[in-house]
Amino acid sequence: MSLIIALNLFFATIFLVTRETKLRFRNKEIVLDYARVSILVLILLIISGIASISTVKNALMPQFNIVPWQILIIFFGSAYVCTSLDMSGVLKYFAYKLVLASKENGVRLYFNLVFLTAIMTIFTSNDIVTLTLTPIVAYIARYSGINPIPFLISIFFASNTWSMIFYIGNPTNVIVAQAYSLRFFEYAKYMLLPTLVAGIVSTLMFFLIYRKQIPQAVSLAQLEDPKEDIVNKYYSILNVVVFAIFFGFLAFGDLFNLELWKTILVFCGIYAVLNLIFSSSFASDSKDKFTANFSFFFETFKRVPWKILPLVLVFFVFVYIFNLYGLTRYVGNLINFKNQALGTVLMALITSFAANLMINQPMTILFANAMKVAGIENLKYAYALVIGSNLGGNITLMGALAGLMWSRILAYYGIKMDNKTFVKNTLPVVLVTIVASSLALLF
């Protein structure tokens, strides 16, 4: 009975998170966002007796190489570092220059944007890319009169594709990497070919599909020079230098047995000091001197997606409960395929569609635990899970939290993007891409 209640609460959480239901209480509108829903469900789990404070504590402790509290540090720490880089204005300025390099040629603009998405995603994250490039495309579309859908779909798809190459590209990669004790270069070595195959196949397919919708000429005369977005020249230069050092430590830290979460925590501290020192130079003309001097520091901190924290926490609790009742072992036995070639492709397909039933992060937590419980040590299947958790976000808008965020950004710019439109544009491409990239794992 407890397992049935837990399963109902699990899927109710996913449903409410994807809907963001609005309630009215005492003439006030309350939005049930990620954080509120997760906290409410956690309280219900404790009240019902299915979970306790000890359960929450145990859910964050090491389980089959997966250390949830370290994953939280890695995810939110990386987000803070990448957000700090984005706040400097460097990414937007770089994007502006590459867009202008297309010289108002529509086809060149298309490939430049996809290339830019790939580069930015590899070294930052898909969320940062979505926040940076979507407004630029929306702005170009507004003033040039072009159809933005081919550009937007291709960019979003690319951000969820190139995020596979390094394990810091997506929180789901970190979960798998930690479950199987994968080092930076070991992970990258295996995921390089599948990511290249996925990126090339999807880009060419989208171009063939959209080639008649991409205009020959695109007016960029109204595109604003983002020099003003460079908040401070010295801050921006120092920010880029620190980020390069940060990435170097991520890449080569394994050679010195530096734990990933410790490295990220140290650089979070460095960026916090950097943001604090320069914050006073960005001060506005505010009567509140404290707010004026520290507004940039606080704004950078606030832009980290903290609302996801309770959501990830409650899903770690759910998986811990499922472990106790043997559900994860049952799932693990179902996906313990004997034929490696067939199993690799099936694992990628199953997990990609499962991500659209329960969002990619909780799906990855569940499947990674299930694989370890069932004794699945085949790394091909682990990397297939990486493919499924990333590319699953390209099947529907509900496959990843990034999709929900992206659709809301588009709505703000007056661009309608519902699930029907999204699936119609992406499904054929994503199916071919999943199969092609999972087959590339076998080489």
Task: Explain what you see.
The chain has one domain. The chain has 20 helices and 2 strands. It has helices at 2-19, 34-47, 53-59, 68-87, 90-100, 106-123, 126-144, 149-159, 171-179, 184-210, 233-252, 260-279, 289-302, 308-324, 327-334, 340-358, 360-373, 379-391, 401-412, 419-440; strands at residues 22-25, 28-31. Strands 1-2 form a two-stranded antiparallel sheet. Helix 1 (2-19) runs antiparallel to helix 14, helix 7 (126-144) runs antiparallel to helix 8 and helix 15 (327-334) crosses helix 17 (360-373). 46% of the residues are buried. Its main location: membrane. Pfam families: CitMHS. This is Arsenite efflux membrane protein ArsB. Belongs to the CitM (TC 2.A.11) transporter family.
Helix fraction, binned, reads: over 70%
The count of β-strands is 2
Q: Runs with pLDDT <50, length 5+?
A: 285-290
Major sheet description: 2 strands, antiparallel
N-to-C SSE string, H for helix and E for strand: HEEHHHHHHHHHHHHHHHHHHH
Distance between the termini: 46 Å
How many individual domains? 1
What structural category do the secondary elements indicate? mainly alpha
Give the amount of beta strand, in percent: under 5%
Family: Belongs to the CitM (TC 2.A.11) transporter family.
Subcellular location: Cell membrane
Organism: Pseudothermotoga thermarum DSM 5069
Domain Citrate transporter-like: 32-371
